[in-house]
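Hi U.,

Before I forget, here's the chain from the pilot set. I'm dumping it here mostly so it's searchable later in email.
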Amino acid sequence: MKAQKRWLIVAMAALMFTAAIVVLPQIIGAKQSRGLPAKSLAAAPVPVRSTSQDKKNEVIVGASVHNDTSPPLRDMKQAKVARKAEKEANENPKVPATLKHVDSPDTAVQSYSLMMSLFAPNMPSPLLNFDGVAFPGVACNCAPPDTNGEVGATQYVQIVNEGYQVFDKTTGASQLGPAGITTLWSGFGGVCQNNGSGDPVVLYDQIANRWVITQFAGVSVPTDECIAVSTTSDATGSYNRYDFHLGSNFFDYPHLSVWPDAYYMSMNVFNSSGTAFLGPQPFAFDRANMLLGLPATFVSTGVTGGSNEDVYLPSDLDGVILPPVGAPASFVEFPSTGAYRVFHFHVDFATPANSTFTLFSSPAAAGFSLLCATTRSCVPQAGTTNRVDGIGDRLMFRLAYRNFGDHEAVVGNFSVNSGGVAGVRWFELRNVTSGPVTVFQESTYQPDTTWRWMGSAAMDQQGNIAVGYSASSSAINPQIRFAGRLFTDPLNVLTQGETTLFAGAGSQTGTLNRWGDYSDLTVDPVDDCTFWYTQEYIPSNGSFNWRTRIGSFKFAQCGGLPTPTPTPTPTPAGTPTPTPTPTPTPTPTPTPTPVPNAPSNLTATAVSTSQINLAWTDNSNNEDGFKIERCQGNGCSSFAEIAQVGPNVSSFSNTGLSSNTRYRYRVRAFNGGGNSAYSNIAGVRTFR
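Structure:
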């Protein structure tokens, strides 16, 4: 009997202990969502065991430490941050690329010819071109500015360390600011109000027509992410404000994106002293609740891969066509290992343990050499021996995603060392959520001896691509430029040439080397054609006197209004959302054009374990180009387009293939009148 009583006592104690573990965090989280807690009560992220068989990391769940809704930003006292001592930001801590990448010849440098020179004059000139926030960045007296910006329905918002400004996108006139980012967090309390640390990002959620403004915060090192989501499309209005405590590590370089089911973020994680890289970490924030101003959570799968894994960026939605229903957010990793590793984040806020972050595909990247691998005294400037940092160990912001209906595409870029100078390596990956993921095109833009670096790439509704970047050399002061291509141009080249947005009149001197962590190229959500770019420059030689510039431009070939994305009333997870009625778009009557003749005599020849060469006979004289389709396997029939080539081209090399694998191909010509019939099908197996 005594033994039985002892057993009952032990069982009751175990039951009470289990209940405390399960219930107490929920009680604490509920209290924290209603009021600002003392520092000792800050919510710690809670690990949750994942049931996924292919997932090594535990799923981490964290509740917002505090959330509220602010007064309208325009009615708040605009903060002028107390003047601080001039300070250059610390060097970005090194990540694995600098340690393990093996430099190789750049096999993707854009080649030039007479044909290319004929395209060059067509790059558009700026439509608007005006100054943004200037040093000291609302008295932060810091360098660099980390220039970032986004275009919305009627406004353009620029954000830097540690200030913001709202502009009328039609005229460029200032509507609010410049003011300290602290303004947005006035009255909120905690580290978001008192210990903001910069690395700001502003996004426009065009699905809901809301602004998303973020920066990291912490008393000594950044441990929190502060996220504010506007309640309307007016950037000067009120915001739903959130403080998310991510953990006790040093969470660096936050980059966020908009996706239908969440706001996604990548972080480069270091130990609490910032001396050791632990690895990259993905996060998903509960977008539905944040749009409504309700208490929200984040889900993370923790550091993914450890200290030897390269860092990645989440794909950020552009355009009016949403990703396929249920499509995972795609993260793309810097290709120091020779591949664009694509990860899928499936988040489940209702049952977080079901969330997974898994490697989906690893298409091969062209060879390159790292830029500024061992020093930040790297990019030359006119009139000084002082050089600035190129940051060549990570993808540059943003990774822009677009769904065209018949295919998906993401475009991104990073800086490389090519021909002894810095060049912008840009790339387009296709079908990142559904597969098979392919490198549709990639190229290094390095047309001369000028150094080009710190780019940002995006794509308009037609598939035209633009890339903005900084340009400098020992002969010129740093400038802001952009280049681009039309979707009908030959693949792998920025055929439309280059335009200067603004030429700085000075160079950064003294001991300063930092030149921003990123720039930002975005696309107007209303016409889905106009690009907006923001970047920094120096007005005259000096140490702490950076300026920022904002400009817009548009390809003349991009026209017509896209069908607008319906703006649903946000609802919490689990609540049915009515399907809005789309606005019909008039269909123009095309001018009849004879379609081209079909190509013939298609052959496929394996030349290695990863490459197959195609050749065909061009039987037409009126084609705009050829579309190449491929499927995998004996007798396969599920062909998907993998590339396009220009007119009068009759060969193509398909690289990045799997060894000892059979592929089948077919080709057809196209022009404004439509597509030709298909060629014959040719198949071959890659080498073993």
